[in-house]
Amino acid sequence: MTFPEILDRVGSMGPFQYLHVTLLALPILGMANHNLLQIFTATTPAHHCRPPPNTSAGPWVLPMGPNGEPEKCLRFVHLPNTSLPNDTQGATEPCLDGWVYNTTRDTIVTEWNLVCSSGKLKEMAQSIFMAGILIGGLVLGELSDRFGRKPILTCSYLLLAASGSGTAFSPTLSFYIVFRFLTGFSISGIVLSTVILNVEWVPTWMRAISSTAFGYCYTTGQFILSGLAYAIPQWRWLQLAVSVPYFIFSLLSWWIPESIRWMVLNGRFSKALKTLQHVAAFNGKKEEGEKLSLEELKFNLQKDISLAKTKYGTTDLFRIPILRHMTLCLSLAWFSTGFAYYSLAMGVEEFGVNLYILQIIFGGVDIPAKFITILSISYLGRHITQAIVLLLAGGAILALIFVPSDMQILRTALAVFGKGCLSGSFSCLFLYTSELYPTVVRQTGMGINNLWARVGSMLAPLVKITGEVKPFIPNVIYGTMALLGGSAAFFLPETLNRPLPETIEDVQNWRHQGKARKQEPEAEKASQRIPLKPCGPQ
């Protein structure tokens, strides 16, 4: 009897599962609030140099830039006890007395003057937040294997609540960056534990549905973020509003049971049995739960225990040829998806459309995008879908280079289309990667590839800085990487309607079966080309 069969005995889809999925899904609503928060808390409003103190009253004339617009980072040199210049000629100097901002919103940009030469610090803050997610995935994944999924989940909720609230009280940019790093660090623990606990406690047929539901919770969170940002114009109060609920989620997490497989693999059979009996009682199958015994549990999960004892590490993903081929192609696809996704998601203010409406549109496009992706991977296949969505996203990003900045509707439409394709790419990659890797290295493979997505999301804000050299350079880099990722997907095997591989030998058999299928038609064609011997004497 396998674990899914044991789960059927205690109730595979009863009241417990509905409560379990709900408790895991609620915190996902707030993930977008933190991932995309700087769209609103770090908005750069229109600004110009503040006039020197003790200047005479009168209109403040600004130098004009090469594009015919007033300079944002320069002002005319003003000598004491002289009037302000009233023309557009004269020597200029940096904004020595700060800036005047044309906004009613309070952001980190206006509070700490993150404009002009300090503008790069805003992008650096977002990159460090993404670095926290990356490092958190490495550290908390290891701690999760050692101490269990539930303790890491609860601690991650608490850390997110504390670091997010700490960010709201940051006295300087340095403190802000440190707290944002810790916030990103905690998000990895929440995501990793949520995925594992969801997959383990629901039946196989329900996994795709529950995973999709989690994806739509994240999408709904983007709508919530727009509403909160509109209602709360002060960045500190907005930061606090999206962080405090995680104190409540940490308390609710005590109702979430530990992973049965983790308890069994770590020798905690008695606790695993009590948990299963509790689930059976909750689902109205108390008698079935009481029939379970320690000996039966150990015997039926012997295969899981033996597979866990087979040690495979990160080096095996590159040492074994078939795994190396898959890892390199998948890594490029994951990197390019994270890289291009956050280039668009964090660049909302660049399109000149109302920030709140555009964020709702950016979030809303995920709904049809993920639905179409699910249909495509179910009928066309995984690797075709993965390649198409990345190639389309790359094409949309590159097309932005040729659309003038005054054509805001067309630029916005291309950006929304590209973002939808990249959302679909994420949905496809999570399923496709888990189906490609065999059980013995599945967690390791998922971790490595997710790492590359985090590297891409960390580098995306930094690449925007190259726009100071030439405005089109960032989109060239983003679009080209998406095209490369889509091309790499063509070299991956198809997994549609195939059982999950358990061992590395199962994956190797896929290659042999694929070669055999290709050789069959060639053999048939060769047999048809055999010349017939003519009748009669030679």
TrEMBL record:
Q: Per its UniProt record, what Pfam families does this chain match?
A: Sugar_tr
PROSITE patterns (alphabetical): MFS, SUGAR_TRANSPORT_1
One GO cellular component, as annotated: endomembrane system
What's the name of the protein? Solute carrier family 22 member 8
InterPro entries, sorted:
MFS_dom, MFS_sugar_transport-like, MFS_trans_sf, Orgcat_transp/SVOP, Sugar_transporter_CS
Q: Does the keyword Transport apply?
A: yes
**What is a single molecular function from GO for this protein?**
organic cation transmembrane transporter activity
The portions of this protein that span the membrane are 152-169, 175-201, 213-232, 238-256, 326-344, 356-377, 384-403
Major facilitator superfamily (MFS) profile domain location:
83-497
**Species per Swiss-Prot/TrEMBL record:** Spermophilus dauricus
UniProt similarity note: Belongs to the major facilitator (TC 2.A.1) superfamily. Organic cation transporter (TC 2.A.1.19) family.
Recite the UniProt keywords alphabetically.
Ion transport, Membrane, Transmembrane, Transmembrane helix, Transport
Q: Where is this region: Disordered?
A: 511-538
Q: Alphabetically, which GO biological process terms does the record hold? A: monoatomic ion transport; organic anion transport
Keyword Membrane part of the UniProt annotation = yes
Q: How does the entry describe its membrane topology?
A: Multi-pass membrane protein
Q: Which PANTHER family match?
A: SOLUTE CARRIER FAMILY 22 MEMBER (PTHR24064)
